Amino acid sequence: MKKYFRLLTFRPRNYIITPEAKQPMEAIDYKIPKIEVKVEIAIDNGTGFELDEYAVYLNKFSRYRKGEETIFEFLNRRNEFIPIHHIKSDRFSLVNIDRVAYIREKEKFPAHYEMKIDIQLKYNKHIEVDHINPLPGSQSRVQDYINQDPPFLLFYKNEQKIFINKSVIIKISEQIV
Description:
By secondary structure, the protein is mostly beta strands. It contains two helices and eleven strands.
């Protein structure tokens, strides 16, 4: 589903309101096409995580490659606040990216998983996830993966992508399968 957001309204440089003018020139709206993706977002409220269904709006074109922007790119683009749409209340809001504990996509992605990992988050919350190691062999340890630059890391849970904010991770343990 395409969505359009009102990016900005501006007035041309020659925009002048004179006393004899009946109405100022109309503002010009620029619309940027967006792709709606429904996700579950856990927001850190200071005493626990509030998990609910939201929609996020991704760019039609990725900044880094051909194709549409991914949630991974959306979360790791270093914006302090991200727009979200609460499905149940039909309200838009901006949420501080540092307060987003994790985002889980609704779509299923079957894949070959290398290991199970138990991730302990703040407030003693545990998430058991599957890990697919995207790093080359010499850097294929879990430690190498979690010490990368992006603040959000990709894991899988029940064949769904889950993006976990490193700032809420307390401890990671490999599970023996």
